[in-house]
């Protein structure tokens, strides 16, 4: 960890790239190359990361920007040209038949009660209807999937990214808690659980390692991960790994009815089951068990980081299903985050994709719960000044200054934050932090809209930081996912004056321009004829793109993956969306005017006359624009669409009405053929259909019916129209059923609906 200290001590006095002399630049490129090589080694080969991902990215960014300014100094082995040593080189890949997901978190009693309430609501249960949960420790190790066929262990795989993991079968076979054969299991049985190392074994292993002059591990979790992911299974065999089974994946025949029954069966098959698992009949019992486990935490002899509550009845689990990455039927109640005190060395401002200026604390490195932390978020300027979102004091109004002794808080995987400051240790010469009012990256004004906690750079696409972050988002996995272009390539393509990829459209002209330019991509370091050809092909493959991915990829504020899907379903095509937004623009402006008027009223009530007058004046100015009925209709249609609220709608409207952004969109669209949602093949019989539910549903709640239908690709609407494909009518259906009959729309009952989607 000494390395991290060194890096940070230097980072604290980091010279802006523009101000570096050639000698300084050369020395720094050497330093960065060494630091990044060390970080890669620690992360990929030793499973013992020494710096955070954000810190790693910052080093890479700095390296790239120095190289961009001094191209002649670029090292032959520049880190910019290296793909981070593949984590899994040597292990074959395993595609999980059912994805290995994660859990959403609860941090206090309130969150746990909300979890219970949410589930009852989803299932249509009252507060007093019986509902059983299991509560079991959350083991702090790494998850492992074990596949048994005909009772024999045939494959073990790590979680990886949830979809694809590493094949560690030989290593798993060396773990005593993992049976090689089980009797009476279904033909295919995938058991899931956690590999971990006990405290005693961890200490002993580190002592042995130190004695042998080998590297030691930071904590039991890293030791377990490093031991499991050994290419040589004899090394794993010599490491004392343990395994608790807590769940399952693919099972060829249903064998369990309840979570608790499943654990008992896994135990009977010879797996280790955590003894602190209990059934609970209400949140009070869950919280009582949490308190018991927390009491025992220090004496368990292995690390746990919380308690997992799961709905016990597997039929209910099935009904509850999953959100995009987490099950609705389970939650992890985390133990309180760990805290540490350290010195705040400097405050850096990072500029994000939407121009947000985010203050980042550069800290004297400190270990918080087994992880070395040297960067932490400071949220926004009010937070630094000691004010909350509502303007009231936080931390008793104490501000945070460079040089202060600060408390760092870290909860699980969450980005660490500066939580408190110790005024008794404040050096005499500190000054209140002055938040920049210009963008540190492009010099444009950085302004804060009324009601927004965040100050934003107004440079738009002329701001290199925003442009680069937008491009990174554009090529990211959930957006265009272009093979061969990641964050690193975006930086390089952006800063290279000939490749000049400054906006998404430039990616699609790269090949044509490459042919004309004197400097070809294949002449660049790290690129050859083949890789360039592959890249152009990968780009070509994305000229046809699902409409929702295109919408998400544009990086418009508030348009996340889910909203992009909603918009794509609602409008079907770029032309329809653009036309609707152009038509709706006057209504969008009127909406904002109304908002400002409301704000003026609020401000006046608070006797903040100046703010009130400004807001009133703006409201009056905007109210002058008359709203044509067509605009109002287009706007109402937008905000009434599923999942689209006024905040998103306004943001989208602003983006489409901004000439620079719209220009960039139009230039991009010239190269693309978006695929409308309905025309895509789907296995589900209701994909692309518009479904309306009416009357009383007896086997599921409305929320459940809607979520399930949407998960199968249907659009659920509240009213029957000519566009409705299917009406699902329960008892008591009234006018909607009549209207559907008039329009000749197919109408089915709840059982027929369930039969229709069964197995889909
Ligand atoms: S259940 C759908 N139970 O926690 C996911 N997970 O954040 C079901 N973990 O990746 C997971 N102890 O590695 C479950 N008793 C337990 C657990 C547990 C540890 C880990 C697991 C998972 C992560 C979720």
What do these coordinates show?
The chain is α+β, with helices and mostly antiparallel strands and 760 residues long. Among the domains are: 86-334, DNA ligase/mRNA capping enzyme (D-amino Acid Aminotransferase, Chain A, domain 1), CATH 3.30.470.30; 475-507 and 509-542, no CATH class; 548-675, no CATH class; 690-757, Rossmann fold (3-Layer(aba) Sandwich), CATH 3.40.50. The strands form seven sheets. The protein has a five-stranded mixed beta sheet. A hairpin with a 2-residue loop joins strand 13 and strand 14. Helix 20 (574-605) packs antiparallel against helix 21 (609-623). Bound molecules: 2-(butylsulfanyl)adenosine (IVH). 2-(butylsulfanyl)adenosine binds at residues 101-103, 136, 138-139, 143, 159, 194, 246-247, 308, 327, 330, 332.
